[in-house]
Target: DSBA oxidoreductase
Amino acid sequence: MKIEIWSDVMCPFCYIGKKHFETALENIPYKDKIEVEWKSFQLNPDLSKTEVTSVKEYLIESKGVSEEQVVGMNNQIAEMGKTVGIDFNQENSKVVNTSDAHRLIHFAQSKGKGNEIEEALFKAYFTDGKNVADYNTLSEIGEEIGLNKTEILEMLNSDAYVFDVASDILDARNIGVSGVPFFVVDRKYAMSGAQPVEYFVSALTQAYEKDHLQDNADNNGASCDVDGNC
Model:
């Protein structure tokens, strides 16, 4: 069973949703039969790659919220993060364009390290306050999970995966994704948002048992069961 997850590095609920999803997988007997593919989505593709903005400045200017509201929102997210082991420090987060971070995600997935790079980038952005548009920073993040730093820099300094990122975003638009995280199972079922662990367990189990257990049964060939039914 294939699960595609549209996500953005600067989306706190994507990080929380990732934790809930991973916990759910540990409670599903078919977890080894599930393939995960991370897909690119940008909450604000118009952001600069070179001008760094704080979360407070960004929300006040782009969303029109007050400074007091920003503090309240950050505190609420921080409390939610604690329940899943995330140390949110959004007051230190650097709001920048995430397109190159998404290219790194595609590169990492090509090396079998999609989940690892997602976790590393979320931590870099939300906990460590790193600039995820800076090439040296991205190469160091990639190196930390076992990728080759030189290869990362060569990739970033080319147009590699630019089309893949754009294709993911277009794909999201075509299937009606308006917010992230967004989970699509076998291109048949969809789940939106950082759902509770129990919801993921139930939904994923039902999807697998409905489609894949029946497929396995159909592929077993002609047979008779222990009751003599043939």
